[in-house]
Amino acid sequence: MLTFLRRSLQILLLTMLGGMAAHASAADTTPAQQLSQWSATAGQTGRVEQGRVFFNAKHGGDWSCASCHGSPPTQQGKHANTGKVIKPLAPAFNPQAFTDSARVDKWFRRNCKDVLSRECSAIEKADVLAYLISLKP
Amino acid sequence: MTSVFSSALRSSLAAMLAFAALTPALADGNLQPRLALPIYQQECAACHLAYPPGLLPARSWTRIMNGLDKHYGSDASLDPADVQQISRWLQTEAGTYKRVAEAPPEDRITRSAWFVSKHRKLDPQVWKHASVKSAANCAACHAGADKGDFDDDGVTLPYGLSKQQFFKR
């Protein structure tokens, strides 16, 4: 009986730990760091106005960035297909935005494919981030 | 003292186990697996409800997980390790009972015969309403959908729709 209890407790603890590890967001970067990184790769500093235009424009497909994130993205967005609520994208309105580099890379890769049918260039990312950082309460 | 404690423990544990064994029969509403996979929730529920794996057969999940870069109009690609972990879990939790034995068209839960039949009394306009958007948005009406609760009793009218608009006339 005791062995059984101990085993169940072990499994429970392991499950909880596993869950925490999976949920933990690796806060390994900041919006400012991401911006300077992409600006460096592009050889050009991200530009707010270009970012705003890029964010709101359609690029050949059905969606713009704003279709899901809203415009300006300072409030909750809504997935254009599923209606799922999306946290504000502008860092001043969502402290978690652009703080996990793996997450940032994953979502840029996927969402650029959805909007532009290709990955975004470094300057496009720098422009968009310059725009997002410029949005203040 | 120890023996009293241990026998109390034993009987309460027995009661808990008995209750756990009975629960599925009592609450036919909870369709989520007892042991959730956190990464399934984290990745899949980032865009849509974490659909209970039992609503599709294993074959459908295999196809879905092999085509995440073209996922119902979106790129939902993940790194290979995450794909593998989620796939393995979906294979063990996939539906095996009669009504999900057959893969629905396009591997869409919403095109399963049972789904269509369960929702046959709804006005087709309901799916297109701004607060619903699509039949895939279970939570628009099933408030407990994220917990696997799809009981009729828990259904609420989506925001902005009256009862008259909800049902076929």
Structural notes for this entry:
The complex is a heterodimer of chains A (137) and B (169). The termini of chain A are far apart. With 137 residues, chain A is mostly helical. Chain A has a domain at 52-137: Cytochrome Bc1 Complex, Chain D, domain 2, CATH 1.10.760.10. Chain A contains six helices and two strands, in the order H-H-H-H-E-E-H-H. Chain A has helices at 2-23, 31-42, 48-56, 65-69, 101-116, 122-134, and strands at residues 77-78, 85-86. In chain A, 56% of the residues lie in helices and 3% in strands. In chain A, helix 2 packs antiparallel against helix 6 (122-134) and helix 3 (48-56) packs across helix 6. Chain A has a two-stranded antiparallel sheet with strand order 1-2. Chain B is built from seven helices and no strands. Chain B folds into three domains: 1-30; 32-108, Cytochrome Bc1 Complex, Chain D, domain 2 (Orthogonal Bundle); 119-169, no CATH class. In chain B, helix 3 (58-66) packs antiparallel against helix 4. Chain B is 41% helix and 0% strand. Chain B has helices at residues 2-26, 38-44, 58-66, 80-93, 113-118, 125-128, 163-166. The interface between A and B is medium-sized, with 18 and 28 residues.
